[in-house]
Amino acid sequence: MTRGLLKPIVLVEDNPNDLELTLVALEKARLANDVVVLRDGAEAIDYLSCSGSYSSRERGNPAVVLLDIKLPKLTGLDVLEYIKRDAELKSVPVVMLTSSRQEPDLQRSYELGVNAYVVKPVSFDDFVRAVQELGGFWAVLNEPPPGSVRFNR
Q1: Torsion angle in degrees (nearest 10) through CA of 108, 111, 113, 119
Q2: Which domains does the chain have, with CATH numbers?
Q3: What's the alpha-carbon Rg for the chain, to the nearest Å?
Q4: For residue 3, is pLDDT > 70?
Q5: What share of the chain is helix, strand, coil (3-state, %, to 5)?
Q6: What is the C-alpha to C-alpha distance for residues 45 and 31, in angstroms, rounded to an integer?
Q7: 142 forms bridges with which residues in the sheet?
Q8: What is the pLDDT of residues 100-133, one digit of tens each?
Q9: Could you say which DSSP state residue 121 is in?
Q10: Over the stretch 32-58, which tens digit does the pLDDT of each residue have?
């Protein structure tokens, strides 16, 4: 359920500890956006495309997708590729929020059109600060391109 006309933040994360840390960080950012938590790549695509168990959800794009790379079923790179190839989704900002510092992951993410690539810091305070800045920018400050599909509510 969304609060008012704000588009939700989609968080795709399968690690329970990283999920909890990210949710705490988003809460500390005091964003009014709802956060939709998805646990694997296939669920993310179902949500974004309004298919499968999300076929009855109200259409509309999220404010931002925070995406881990290493996910079950489909990787974060698979989800990113799907988003950036879909005409209705390609303008949705995607931030890789991952522990991977591997150069091939970084390079492939940017080749596919990721908007930002953030390596999860080890320090909780640094992580909270990074997520607060990300959430504030993508959910509040960033203006979507003209004609992008807005969240309906």
Answers
A1: 40
A2: 9-140 (3.40.50.2300)
A3: 14
A4: no
A5: 40, 15, 45
A6: 24
A7: none
A8: 889 999 999 999 999 888 887 667 787 777 777 7
A9: P
A10: 789 999 999 999 999 999 999 999 999
As beta bridge partners, residue 44 has none
Neighbours of 27 (CB within 10 A): 14
Maximum C-alpha span of the chain: 40
Amino acid at 90: K
Cα(23)–Cα(26) distance, integer angstroms: 5
Residue 61 near residue 148, CB atoms below 8 Å:
yes
Instruction: List the structure tokens of 86.
Output: 């879909």
Give the pairing of strands 94-98 and 116-119. parallel
Under 8 Å between Cβ of 61 and 87: no
Alpha-carbon gap, residue 68 to 39, rounded angstroms: 10
| Backbone dihedral region for residue 127 (phi beyond 0: left; psi -120 to 50: alpha; all else: beta) | alpha
Return d(Cα 57, Cα 7) in angstroms, integer: 13
The H or E element that residue 9 is part of is strand 9-12
CA 125 – CA 41 distance, rounded (Å): 28
